[in-house]
Specification:
Number of helices: 13
Largest sheet: 8 strands, antiparallel
Strand content: 5-15%
Distance between the termini: 42 Å
Radius of gyration: 21 Å
Length: 429
């Protein structure tokens, strides 16, 4: 039986180089050995479950003492940071964000798949590092304060709650495979490329506002609400979203639009206006640098708040061609995997811990978005009615996928066909 631990690539590509693994601690596909082993376990655990439906997950019907404790502590610690640090962080982020926009606007071709990694780009990265020093210091101060508060109050809860420290040790085992991911600091140029593509999509003020919030809010949502190791038992929750059939389009048409919408550094004006819909989620997962010898890169997600992610591109190292090997896919229902987004525990700037994939499904070529997220069963962490919970994000992507499908049909079949699908969606929902 083939497992992720003994087979990371299929096809013609070579196995990951030992030099890269030894230097970076991860495979060129972006996973660690511990995470690959956990993938094997997940496939065995879910073998009898349908990949097209959410796995059963009990959610507390009422708020309990842990929920109230988490909410009160977060408000007391977070509100002062938002009032004091956020305005300063917003101001000091404006110069590097604006310079990044100038670079991608004037020094990158008008429609461009990936930002050329030229000598000019290296100079730009150095300038970005210098301009980002004030914001990096403020972000470090905010993260330190937040981590200290969470450890202090979490330890108090474990001490006074019966079985608290035993629960803590169990939870540490649950999150262990998701620890030890690539540090964002080691891939600073990736972060700059992701921010450049996103500020080009969203504009300086909107992007900076969400970006500044990311440094303050995301650690609290990730470590204190959705994946708190102190207050409740954690597990891996499987939710998935499957779109409508797209089998009237060729597979290559759907794949091409995935890449144009999400990975292309600069889009056409028409695509940019559609992507910039202010009511919806906007992901940007840039391609890995051509000479980086890896399949993953740092990406960025944008809504009210931004979030850094580590994205594995399932195709060749450049990810611009269908030739070459593929990283193995966790989804059992994918006809064509496109991305794997790993939400590492040691990445404080995303609100979840877990693994997400974006694929073209075997089910009539529909779009699918399976998610394996660390979650408790508490109402605050898992109830669909609680904003940013692991249940809420399931409903959120149920609304986003039709928007993405509309974009694909608009590009490939024209507005009449796209509007016809949108009309049938309104009738259905």
């Amino acid at each position: 039986m083939k497992t992720y631990n003994n087979l990371i690539h299929s096809g013609t590509e070579e196995t990951p180089s030992s030099d890269f693994q030894r230097k970076r601690g991860v495979y060129p596909t972006g996973e660690t050995i511990a995470l690959l082993k956990r993938f094997d376990d997940l496939r065995q655990e879910e073998a009898e479950l349908s990949p097209y439906y959410n796995a059963p997950w009990d959610v507390n019907k009422e708020f309990d003492a842990a929920d109230f404790f988490q909410g009160v502590v977060m408000l007391l610690a977070l509100v002062p940071q938002l009032l004091i640090l956020y305005p300063i962080l917003f101001v000091v982020l404006l110069p590097p964000v604006f310079v990044n926009l100038l670079y991608i606007t004037f020094l990158v071709p008008r429609v461009c798949d990936t930002i050329p990694r030229t000598f000019t780009w290296r100079l730009h990265c150095i300038l970005q590092a210098l301009l980002s020093i004030p914001s990096a210091v403020l972000a470090l101060i905010s993260l330190s304060i937040s981590t200290l508060c969470m450890c202090l109050f979490g330890s108090l809860y474990c001490t006074f709650d019966s079985g608290g420290w035993s629960r803590y040790r169990r939870n540490m085992e649950v999150i262990k495979p998701f620890c030890g991911g690539p540090s964002l600091y080691n891939y600073f140029s990736d972060c700059i490329a992701a921010c450049a593509g996103m500020v080009y999509r969203r504009g300086v003020m909107e992007f900076t506002s969400a970006f500044a919030l990311m440094f303050i809010i995301n650690p609290w949502i990730k470590y204190w609400i959705t994946g708190n190791v102190y207050t409740a038992d954690l597990g891996i929750r499987y939710v998935t979203q499957v779109g409508r059939p797209m089998d009237d389009l060729a597979l290559k048409q759907v794949k091409r639009n995935f890449r144009h919408y999400i990975s292309r550094a600069k889009n056409t004006r028409e695509s940019r206006l559609f992507i910039c819909n202010p009511l919806l989620f906007c992901p940007h997962f840039p391609y890995p640098a051509r000479r980086s010898n890896r399949y993953f890169a740092v990406g960025l997600e944008h809504s009210t708040i931004a979030a850094f992610v580590h994205t594995t591109h399932f195709k060749s190292k450049s990810s611009l061609s269908d030739e070459g090997g593929k990283s193995r896919c966790l989804s059992r229902s994918a006809a064509e995997p496109i991305y794997r987004v790993i939400l590492w525990r040691n990445n404080p700037y995303h609100i979840y811990t877990g693994v997400v994939e974006a694929c073209i499904s075997k089910k009539r070529q529909s779009l699918e978005h399976p998610m394996w997220l660390i979650s408790s069963h508490n109402k605050l962490s898992a109830d669909p009615k609680i904003c940013l919970s692991t249940g809420w994000i399931d409903l959120f992507f149920d609304q986003f996928i039709p928007h993405f499908e509309y974009f694909i049909r608009l590009n490939e079949l024209g507005r009449e066909a796209a509007d016809a699908m949108a009309g049938s969606l309104e009738e259905q929902f």
